[in-house]
Amino acid sequence: MCSAFLQVFKAMVSRGEGQAVAEAHVQMQFLENELKVKGKKFFGGDNVGLVDICASYMALWVGAAEEALGIKLMPKDKFPKLIEWSDNYINSPAVKDGLPPRETVVGIYKTL
Predict the structure, then answer these.
(1) Quick one: which of 48, 50, 51 has its CA closest to 89?
(2) Where on the phi/psi map is residue 59: left (φ > 0), alpha (ψ -120 to 50), or beta?
């Protein structure tokens, strides 16, 4: 999970540079495959679990970075299960009220 975070962070900081995005995609593909194999709403099943919490940066921060920086790190055609998981995670009652507003996160990326 740490490796995925580092690669995705590098891709965001590089503003979508090809090699950085390709390396992030390798890590994201691992997560995509886990979701496909399990066929569940979240990594641990039908409820938010520890792995979901560890991957939470992808659910809110990656989409906000894409919007703010005008880059595409997690395309829906390549990572449909990861996008679906992100939507489920962000809208989960256990998580929703604890997340900052998306506009705030987008604003943070725009100022950086």
Answers:
(1) 48
(2) alpha
Contact between residue 27 and residue 3 where contact means Cβ atoms under 8 Å apart: yes
Question: Distance between CA 22 and CA 53 in Å, rounded?
Answer: 24
d(CA 84, CA 79): 9
CA distance 55 to 72: 18
- The per-residue pLDDT for range 3-49, each reduced to its tens digit, is 677 778 788 777 778 888 899 899 899 999 999 998 899 998 999 99
Q: Are 81 and 42 in contact (CB under 8 A)?
A: no
Question: For residue 64, what are the contacts with CB-CB under 8 A and spacing of at least 6?
Answer: 102, 105, 106, 108, 109
Other residues' Cβ atoms within 10 Å of the Cβ of residue 87: 12
